[in-house]
Amino acid sequence: MDNPEAAGSGPAHRSPAPPLTERQRARRRRILHATARLACRGGFEAVQMREVAESSEVALGTLYRYFPSKVHLLVATMQDQLEQLHGTLRKSPPAGETAADRVAQTLMRAFGALQREPRLAEAMARALTFADRSVSPEVDRVSRRTTAIILDAMGGLDRPTAEQLSAVRVIEHTWHSTLIAWLSGRASIAQVGVDIETACRLIDVTGAGEPRVTGGGGA
Fold this sequence. Notes:
The chain has 219 residues and is mainly alpha-helical. The chain has helices at residues 22-46, 49-56, 60-66, 70-91, 99-116, 118-130, 136-154, 162-183, 189-200. α4 (70-91) packs parallel to α7.
């Protein structure tokens, strides 16, 4: 019997599930990859649960046990996309002189990836907008991954202060709102870049914005 991560009975809160087996993880990956493919082709409306089940070669009932709705599914897809981006960024981190520079570069690289697949970006953004309390676990995982990406770009802070975490939240909100503005045609990429850079300057007032030391030297 499947024990998918997204399964649960309550509408607002779902009990944590046991860790997935390797077979279940592989099935989950197939589901998420199928969802991304469908969204890339036709956006939010193209992601239909029956088609996802057929494309990922799982039973429809199994799909619903993993993901109760397509909103759950698309928010989980966003988390998966962010995990892939995070892996890429760790292999090739931003090279800005200050933490604010590095975070801005990181978020614009993320934006560049979304630009390449605008229908997928639109589908994931719509899902986040539609998400209600029942999708809180998935939304929380998206937020935690975004926070981790930003903190890594800042310099991998082990114990960020409350002020630094507040700045990260504001930067996250700005990133998400500029994504929606760009997708709806209300903001250009140039304006997105300006807004993200402006928000990232908050890092400078938290004590995490000093230039990165790149070599030795005495005082």
